[in-house]
């Protein structure tokens, strides 16, 4: 299973950069949020968002059983809102 750790100014950017590096779509990866971005004060103490993307061979239909996403943007937003609960 191929995986990559990606950093970005926010979670969306980190996910999109990782997807482009893996040359895949969001439907074919599992995403683990390692660190939320932190703005800091005058960029002092700021941190980038860090995510780990793992390419999966077969996407199970039970990942989102009650929801059929219409495009990749909705999947990214759903993943972000899920991880912000923690």
How would you describe this protein?
It contains 2 helices and 3 strands; from the N terminus they run βαββα. It is α+β, with helices and mostly antiparallel strands. It has one domain (3-83). The chain has a 3-stranded antiparallel beta sheet, with helices on one face. The longest helix is centred in the first third of the chain and has 12 residues, at 11-22.
Care to count the β-strands? 3
Taking pLDDT < 50 over at least 5 consecutive residues as the criterion, the unreliable ranges are: none
Biggest sheet: strand arrangement = 1-3-2
Give a quick account of the main beta sheet: strands, pairing sense, barrel closure.
3 strands, antiparallel
Helix percentage range = 25-40%
What's the domain count? 1
> Strand-residue fraction?
15-25%
Overall pLDDT:
81
Report the order of strands and helices. EHEEH
Structural class: alpha+beta
Please report the distance between the alpha carbons of the first and last residues: 26 Å
Number of helices: 2
Rg from alpha-carbon coordinates: 14 Å
Dominant shape: globular
């Amino acid at each position: 299973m191929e995986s990559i750790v990606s950093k970005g100014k926010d979670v969306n950017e980190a996910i999109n950069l990782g997807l482009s590096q893996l040359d895949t779509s969001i439907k074919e990866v599992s995403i683990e949020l390692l660190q939320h971005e932190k703005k800091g004060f005058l960029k002092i103490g700021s941190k980038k968002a860090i995510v780990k993307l793992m390419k999966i061979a077969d996407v199970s239909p039970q990942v989102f059983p009650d929801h059929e996403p219409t495009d990749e943007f909705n999947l990214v937003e759903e993943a972000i809102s899920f991880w912000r609960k923690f």
